[in-house]
Design goal:
Blueprint (H helix, E strand, L loop, with lengths): L1 H12 L7 H21 L3 H24 L3 H21 L6 H13 L3 H9 L7 H14 L4 H16 L3 H17 L4 H9 L5
């Protein structure tokens, strides 16, 4: 899973969404399979929660990759699998803050989809989304998460810019969050590009 994530970020750094796509897919598929086996074999709830988190994370990344490459039905299937895994994890342990990120992304994407996409989502059983709840969840993971904290900050900042409109405070908050990431990861050009492309309001 971590190897796949590293390749995805390397692709983002090079502005290449197709970077080693087959290798990324194979790594995510193996990670999902291992986590699914781990969840089935777990002897305690805490161990099962960990495996369900990784299962949801792998499926979430795989859904993103499928969507980027135009594989709508695979993206839909994996997104549904991600939601189910993370909801199961939270049902076992409501304090799994990191588990909230995938659900936040899922809810935000549905809330901001086109009317036709939302209709299709309901027809095929993906449900609806709530942007306000999704943003609150992203913020919560960015503040209190562990494994998913950095990614939550990054996604929340991007969502804030999308939501900002004429609200300069949202842009300033997004820049603050990404500025923190850029300070922690000075060699990552993705964060620097964001800051260059999102100037501070006058």
């Amino acid at each position: 899973m971590l190897a796949a994530s590293a390749l995805i970020w390397e692709g983002a750094a090079n502005s290449d969404d197709g970077f080693l796509a087959d290798s990324v897919d194979a790594l995510l598929t193996e990670a999902a399979a291992r986590a699914e086996r781990g969840a089935a074999d777990a002897t305690t709830d805490s161990a099962r929660v960990v495996q369900l988190f990784w299962l949801g994370t792998a499926l979430g990344y795989r859904a993103r990759q499928a969507d980027l490459h135009g594989h709508l039905w695979r993206a839909t299937r994996d997104a549904r699998g991600m939601r189910n895994a993370l909801e199961r994890a939270l049902a076992l342990d409501s304090t799994c803050v990191d588990c909230e990120l995938g659900l936040a992304i899922y809810g935000y994407a549905l809330a901001r989809a086109s009317a036709l996409a939302r209709l299709v989502a309901r027809i095929i059983g993906l449900g609806g989304g709530n942007a306000e709840l999704a943003l609150a969840r992203m913020r919560h993971v960015g503040e209190s998460g562990t494994l998913a904290r950095n990614e939550a900050q990054w996604l929340y900042a991007n969502a804030l810019v999308r939501e900002a409109g004429s609200d300069s405070l949202l842009v300033l908050e997004a820049r603050r969050l990404v500025g923190e990431l850029a300070a922690r990861f000075p060699d990552n050009p993705v964060f620097r590009r964001f800051l260059d492309a999102t100037p501070a309001p006058p």
